[in-house]
Amino acid sequence: xxxxxxxxxxxxxxxxxxxxxxxxxxxxxxxxxxxxxxxxxxxxxxxxxxxxxxxxxxxxxxxxxxxxxxxxxxxxxxxxxxxxxxxxxxxxxxxxxxxxxxxxxxxxxxxxxxxxxxxxxxxxxxxxxxxxxxxxxxxxxxxxxxxxxxxxxxxxxxxxxxxxxxxxxxxxxxxxxxxxxxxxxxxxxxxxxxxxxxxxxxxxxxxxxxxxxxxxxxxxxxxxxxxxxxxxxxxxxxxxxxxxxxxxxxxxxxxxxxxxxxxxxxxxxxxxxxxxxxxxxxxxxxxxxxxxxxxxxxxxxxxxxxxxxxxxxxxxxxxxxxxxxxxxxxxxxxxxxxxxxxx
Length: 343
Hints:
Belongs to the glycosyltransferase 2 family. With 343 residues, this protein is α/β, with parallel strands linked by helices. The protein is 40% helix and 21% strand.
């Protein structure tokens, strides 16, 4: 049994594997650490390349693409380790990145997940969009990070180099306690991809666990390796999955008012896309609502089941304001400008 399994889910990502996997293997050469690539039905020769060039890497092959959620659930169910490190194939690690993460998990059994500082591979002086220095959400379910508010990404000048509790850790590089992952039921496979890590971390938080940011560990993330940020499909998944995670995890007293407010906010966004000539993006939001309502009864039943395992649903890491209003009307574009602890 390994102490830590670094698990990379791959789908036709041989170029990323050639670029980044050798460095992952090199920096993971530690006692009790193994590297596993779970392949989601690739047809680009990824698995053969790994076996020919990095035979110390274990491989798991699936017959088709089960998405981020289904692929990881299947992979992690067959791996026996204390900790899993869920790692995107387009992440470049740095020397010594693993030890601080392992030490943080070892110190407190109540920590379900932790993440490193995540910087942009193509702009290494800046934080990376999907994770930065730790994730949060506002009262309406909009995610943001220390180092990234909506579209504004900050330069890393050490302003967030403190260990702290966060609301969610990025799925690009997230160390998870295996027992907590399985106790929470793993990833929600209906999500397929996008926001599944926020949903998992929210369930961790509701179960009474902690999520930690560890600044002593740093990685560089390319980002957008599966779907680029300007893809209508990605927009659809983000809106649909965001609504689902609200229904599953919000406290009862906030659910109806939040969904009511979100409807008008999202329809406003759809109208802006339409008036800008981006009708495919406008339709992505409409389709997201249709898909959400189609599954709403299922998730209301699931919500009742999850309530039995919830110890706490009020978390200080949920911003009580509106990140959208603060960004566009108050011009607050950095995490420190939010005066988070005072709101």
